[in-house]
Amino acid sequence: MTDEPDNAWKSKKGAAKMSVQKSNSDAASRRYWTPGSILRNRKHQLFQMFFMLACLLLTLKYPQFAVAQTCIIVRKMPKEIYVGSDSRRTYTEVTGERSGAVEEITDQVCKISQEGATFFAISGFGGFALSRAVFPSQRLPVLARSGQESLKRLVVSACEQGKTIAEKARAFEQMAADPLTEALEIIRQNNLPYYRQRFADKETCAVIFFGMEGASPAFSVVTFESVNSMSAPVSLVHRVINSSDYPNEVSLTVSTGHHDAIDHLKGDRKFWEIGPVAGITKLIEIQMKATPDKVGGHIDIIKVSKDGAEWIQKKPQCPEIKK
Question: Whole-angstrom Cα distance, residue 134 to residue 53?
Answer without folding.
Answer: 9
